Amino acid sequence: MDKWLYLLINLGAISIPFISSFDRRLRFDKQWRFAVPAMILSMLVFIPWDMAKTDMGVWGFNPRYLTGAYIGNLPVEEWLFFIAIPYACVFTYHSLNYLIKKDILGRLAGILALVLASGLVLIGLANLDKLYTSVTFISAGLFLFLHYFIIRTNYLGRFFLMYFATLIPFFIVNGILTGSFIPEEIVFYNDSQNLGIRLGTIPVEDMVYGLLMLLMNITWFEFLKTRKEKKLNENY
Known about the structure:
This protein is mainly α. It is built from eight helices and six strands; from the N terminus they run H-H-E-E-E-H-H-H-H-H-E-E-E-H. The chain has one domain (about 1-230). The chain has a two-stranded antiparallel ribbon. A two-stranded antiparallel sheet has the order 2-3. A hairpin with a 2-residue loop joins strand 2 and strand 3 (about 75).
């Protein structure tokens, strides 16, 4: 059964959000026309990144927990990861927007983004010899700066709410992937390429990587929705 574990984690992560997508109140299935392209566009960034870092030995995958099917140098389970996790999180974002009308973190979002971006870029620049740390922290910091200074989005507060809400499942899923509760890691890391700081078994870089990946998915999701709404308004 070990070889099915990573696949089962992906299926477990997406199963409840997928089933709940058809809830008559949430109807997230009607948002697929925005969510699916958003995931594909984000994968165009993260899959090549993942392939490159795997090839460089920044991280790798334990064959004990894989079915053995590969696309390029990545196990098929890793490809599915970039579908299952973003889908679950965009669904959560949509659901929280429906259930919580008030933008709770709206007033704090700008300063939070600015402080976080500044800290991430500085840490990244101070650790240019560590590929996972430097590339992840600088990329996430610059993307937050892009939102703050150029895109000037009005949904950062809602994004941060979703991000904080998904930290519990994040620690469960990434904990298993990095060796919590099981004999060996599913995904292993070259600690010479990261800070060596772990939250349990999870490299701290994973939290920043997750933030960047989810923010990119939400950015595309919101952009596609807004573009559609503008077209509808122009037709009236």
